[in-house]
Amino acid sequence: MRIVITGTPGTGKSVIARKLAALLGLELIDIKKIVRKRRLAGRTHEVDIRKLAAALSFLRRRDGYVAEGHLACELKLPADFVFVLRTDPRVLKRRLAKRGYGARKLNDNIAAELLDYCTQRVEQEYLKRPLELDTSRRTVAASAAALAQAVRQKKKKLDAINYSKQLIQFARGN
Ligand SMILES: Nc1ncnc2c1ncn2[C@@H]1O[C@H](COP(=O)(O)OP(=O)(O)OP(=O)(O)O)[C@@H](O)[C@H]1O
Ligand SMILES: [Mg+2]
Predict the structure, then answer these.
(1) In this structure, what are the phi and psi dihedrals at residue 67, rounded to the nearest 5 degrees?
(2) Hey, whose CA ends up nearest to atom 28 of ligand 1?
(3) pLDDT of residue 142
(4) How far is 141 from 70, CA to CA, in rounded Å?
(5) CA of 134 to the centre of ligand 1 (A)
(6) Please, which residues bridge with residue 7 across strands?
(7) Alpha-carbon distance 33 to 14, whole Å?
(8) Above pLDDT 90, what percent of the chain?
(9) Residue 135 and residue 113: Cα distance in Å, rounded?
(10) CATH of region 2-159
């Protein structure tokens, strides 16, 4: 079973993927760790996606993993399931502020979440609709359990996400 988990930073990929991998007995692949180890991030922190694809090509020879990272939406990894974790932008803002993100980085990530950036990128790269899970309404354990259940029951859909009502407020700068 090959599972990819992506989503905006702060949506809970790392904490939830760790639990999911343990629940399903699968190897955990932390894409951010590979980026760091292989020094794939440039001076402005941008990552060369072609180099990342090469660094992740070993996944083609694996048949069981949970691979997680926000960059997983920028390239096609072998996947039986692609999950996009979602978080209410107001909740996400609090989580990212706790990390000490500056205003620019905070706003970029909130905008990405409001605009379904990762979901759209998955649709473009993987040519299929990902299953979206709202982590703002669940504990970490409940989210991992919901993903495990989706895998076991081969679900085609999870949550329906629509944050568009918050767009106007965001554009006004609140
Ligand atoms: N309901 C929740 N679901 C998931 N995470 C939560 C929840 N409530 C609080 N958190 C906290 O939010 C943080 C999510 O961080 P995590 O590192 O898992 O995000 P990430 O998606 O991997 O981000 P990044 O892309 O930057 O690696 C954790 O500190 C986690 O404890
Ligand atoms: Mg992470």
Answers:
(1) -105, 125
(2) 12
(3) 98
(4) 20
(5) 12
(6) 85
(7) 11
(8) 93
(9) 12
(10) 3.40.50.300
The pLDDT of residue 109 = 97
131 contacts 150 by C-beta, under 8 angstroms: yes
Tokens of 108: 């970029």
Average pLDDT, the chain: 96
Give the residue, out of 94, 95, 159, with the most ligand 1 atoms within 8 A of its beta carbon, to mutate for a pocket test. 95
CA 168 – ligand 2 centroid, Å? 29
Average the pLDDT over 69-93 and give the result.
98
Q: Is the dihedral of CA 75, 102, 87, 160 positive or negative?
A: negative
> Per-domain residue ranges for the chain?
2-159
The whole-number pLDDT of residue 165 equals: 93
Which is the closest atom of ligand 1 to the Cα of 137? 1
User: Is the CB of residue 48 less than 8 Å from the CB of residue 74?
Assistant: no
Q: Which segments of the chain are extended strands (E)?
A: 2-7, 27-30, 65-68, 81-86, 131-134
- Determine the distance separating the centroid of ligand 2 and the alpha carbon of 35, expressed in angstroms: 12
* Atom 30 of ligand 1: nearest residue by CA position: 12
Cβ–Cβ < 8 Å for 86, 12: no
